[in-house]
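Why show two proteins at once? Because comparison is the fastest way to build intuition. When a single record is shown, students tend to memorize it. When two are placed side by side, the eye starts asking what differs. So, the first record is below.
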Amino acid sequence: TRLQGQRHGMFLVRDSSTCPGDYVLSVSENSRVSHYIINSLPNRRFKIGDQEFEHLPALLEFYKIHYLDTTTL
């Protein structure tokens, strides 16, 4: 992937190839890349794990400073 070999904490968001309308957050974590599903909700909010956010940028800002403790894809 594009994040392979990048520094710890680098990330990108892409459209999900398996869940139309959802997104995938890919994060470089030490020597591997982890992928997390971001669900687009009917109320135009975004959900990752148990957390909901009004906007995608708010989700990303939150996880820049908080540990992402949800299961990877």
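Second record. Ask yourself what differs from the first in the token line.
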Amino acid sequence: LHHRPGIDFENGFDAGNSDLDDGEMPWSGAEILTSIFSMPIVHEPGAVFRYFDGNYYALARLVEKLSGCDFMNFISQNLFAPMGFVNYAWLRDPNGHVMGGTGLLLRTEDYAKLGWLWLHKGAYDGVRYISEEWISMGLTASVDRTDNAHYGYGVRRLSKNGYSITGAFGQGLYFNVNKNVVYAWHARRRNQVMNVCEAIDKLNLF
């Protein structure tokens, strides 16, 4: 979940930004899970950072296996619907499985609710959805001396108290656990969303 699976990314696509929705990925029309598991492990898991949506795709498939439920239905029943999300969707692969690591479509106000969920240690509006222990682990960034990728469980740590989650099409979410604030937005400036998060964090815009 820290984007450190140890998988060999030397397969003709961008090793630094391996998105499942990238048209150059090697599994067009293939079973994505089979393609992921066919990649050789060349680094000790946890040692080398490589952004890879496949980690979260595999996790979504695991949830389906253990729950016996479609992942979208599972997360709708256990998180989205109870938290009052409306008009949401998740892109699927050619075989009908939720993409997991990409393609989540939310209203801005519901996107912000995810920030509040992190901010309040897994609780929202007085109801606990995720354990405090998991949230604490999720906010703990995995860092080594060879990179500057301060990632927790899909959350990037920007400073001591500031965190961000960004999307492929300009979605931005910033929250600060010390200041008790959450910012969420949608934009078409895909390549600038991380810069916006970093600017909010550095300028203390709260």
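One difference worth noting in the second protein: Residues 1-105 form one domain.
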